[in-house]
Amino acid sequence: MDVIALNEIQAAFSPESALQSIKEGFIAYSKQKVDVPPVGYLGFKEPPGDCHIKYGYINDSPYFVIKVATGFFKNHLVNLPTSNGLMLVMSSQTGQPLALLQDEGWLTDTRTAIAGALAAIQLAPQNIKQIGLIGCGIQARHQLRWLSYATPCKKVSVWSPSLHNSENFAEEMAEFGFQVIPSKNPEQTVSESQLIVTTTPSKQPIIKADWVQPGTHITAVGADAEGKQELEDSLVAAADILAVDSKDQCCDHGEIAHAFQAGLIDIDKIVELGVILDNSDLLKRSSTAVSICDLTGVAVQDIVIATTVYESIKGNL
Amino acid sequence: MDVIALNEIQAAFSPESALQSIKEGFIAYSKQKVDVPPVGYLGFKEPPGDCHIKYGYINDSPYFVIKVATGFFKNHLVNLPTSNGLMLVMSSQTGQPLALLQDEGWLTDTRTAIAGALAAIQLAPQNIKQIGLIGCGIQARHQLRWLSYATPCKKVSVWSPSLHNSENFAEEMAEFGFQVIPSKNPEQTVSESQLIVTTTPSKQPIIKADWVQPGTHITAVGADAEGKQELEDSLVAAADILAVDSKDQCCDHGEIAHAFQAGLIDIDKIVELGVILDNSDLLKRSSTAVSICDLTGVAVQDIVIATTVYESIKGNL
């Protein structure tokens, strides 16, 4: 069994391979060519934290993958990051453990951002004059960098509840060539951007329907559990295109769950990202359309990113 | 994160500590002082195999544990053992991965045998003239050696479907001081033994009620999944003492599930091993009683054995 540290994973990491394999993973998922059982969950009260175990395999793959991801929300008090994690690559031929990827959550952050890039490649409008970010944490950093695969636009407006954090974000992202303007109100960020990514853990809607201009795409990443919400119900209900990573998950506990459960959207209107990725001609957006992609995170992303990294490192061992 | 190989685990392993901690684990389990979610499961068709993920923690413990166990039933064709596995010890304070125990299934085999020893210590009759074993695989080897903590008896009768395998078993166990007689029929093994351990994957009853003499204890280890059965229903129904590692599991898919689901036993008659271990005076067996302990394997055993091994190794790091 190979034990592979984060720096080795990052050194071997090919963004193009990861993008391609996660695209294929979404397609396999939507074709139901995967075996992905319900997510395992452990909760902790004091200090508050949780652990998710996502696992499964793509049919006919020589591997299966088990991902462990933890979030402990008081870790900053002991100078540790909130999130941690690892992935196990196992043989689906013999059950043998093949590799431990000690990615410390980096592969999860990365595969989440790759889904955002894939959504933007498929759904965002042609002319993006400004990218809008709601939230400026770790995931916003990953999302913005991966958006380079979807658009050459480097002009960014960012809003977060903390202007100080937004300013730090702007400074940091400048190193990657982005001109980021911290915004004092989310309405301005939203109304002036054509490609918006939301990455907050908000439990009440931030973006109002009125703010969103025709010809806008929004990727909603923050709402990945019951009770979280970043977009107003009426915005979700009125969207011309409604994409999701997983119909089951998104209708249960994603961004669109609120509007769906309130009976404001028809399930037939919702299209899985894997279906769109498999047939780019399926959806043609008009220049005035508003599109939303709700990403809750599916185990198939973990499975393919771990497998891709393992194969790339194995080739070099 | 420490990565600990099987030989290091075995070198640091203290049988007495493990016995004591698993005893405490069963007690905590029966007092519902544990958080142990349903077992995760993945099945594979070609080659046939499965993977079980058991995880959880004992309340107030600084650790939680995730165990991965695989069984691939054609592995002998590629000269690999059927079973494999590993355990992850994680911090319940920060979510950080602390150790990977590469035990290859050894800790699972061991914790299963320790449960057998604990059952025999509590439930077996005073005078054991002969130990009877039904099945002679890896788990039978572990069970027999651990029975030394329950009885000084070294005389053993073993029956398995293959006399050749029984003979190999007898030869191997002689090295540990056991006088093992391979038996040509299970009736003889059962009727002449006072402490019986069954470890076969049988799907139909092997031991008939008529064979079992008064004053016998049987620990049934083999039936750990739906459809498996080693003891006749009427034997289970007529037992004077009926112990289980987990009421929920045993009534659902353990040895006693068949008799229970047929309405032959009252749930109030079934006592959890953790309850008995917590109060040794609870059950007093008469000299003619027949007792049965059904072991399906509970995650708390994995949790405590991994934790105990990790703490012992950490002390030496």
TrEMBL record, chains A, B:
InterPro entries: NAD(P)-bd_dom_sf (IPR036291), ODC_Mu_crystall (IPR003462), ODC_N (IPR023401). It holds the Pfam family OCD_Mu_crystall. It comes from the Bacteria. This is Ornithine cyclodeaminase family protein. It comes from Zooshikella harenae.
